Amino acid sequence: MALSIPPTFVLLTTLAFAGPPNQEAPLAEAQKVQIVKEVKAVVQAMANGCQRLDIDVAAKDFQQDKDTLVVSSEGQILEPKLLREGLRAFYASQASMSFTRIQEELRILAPDLVLYAWSYKVDGTSKKGAQWVVDPEAASFLLRKVDGAWKFIFYQESCGPVKRVPTAPLPAK
């Protein structure tokens, strides 16, 4: 006599020992550390490009496809190319710009998907000598690992108003 095992028993036994289907194994600590290191390097490269007023370097790690979104501090929803071109004109009018990091948070959502947020202060000087500050400013990024490289697939920025820094009057002659 052949033994008949009900399919429900097989499924329940499999789930009990193997876990639910499509559940990824938790990341090892070394993997988490590596992901954090890689993502922070990509964000820092973008920040460095901004501080050097080089929009092409700053925007090089944005995924260039129709699924990538950017929300500017003015509330515009754009493709990365439009943000890059808008910032190109602004950067061309600046002599310097620097960021001071206030806080950052990073969440690994999956081995190839990371949520990163940071707040910072921006100090700048235009080519005409006008000094300005934005404090605070914040940005949120969603990065996906594509073909072995981390790419920004979502970027949202918000900031307080730009404040002009009064310049000292020139000494009288």
The number of helical segments is 4
- Alpha-carbon distance between the two ends: 114 Å
Named CATH topology: Nuclear Transport Factor 2, Chain: A
CATH class: Alpha Beta
What would the principal axes of the Cα set say about the shape? elongated
Tell me the count of domains: 1
Looking at the overall shape, the CATH architecture is Roll
**Helix-residue proportion:** 25-40%
Q: Uncertain regions: pLDDT < 50 for 5+ in a row?
A: 7-21
**Number of distinct beta strands:** 7
Strand content: 35-45%
- C-alpha Rg (nearest Å): 24 Å
What is the element string, with H for helices and E for strands?
A: HHHEEHEEEEE
Structural class of the secondary structure composition? Answer: alpha+beta
Name the quaternary structure: single chain
What integer is the average pLDDT? Answer: 87
Main beta-sheet strand count, sense and barrel state: 7 strands, mixed
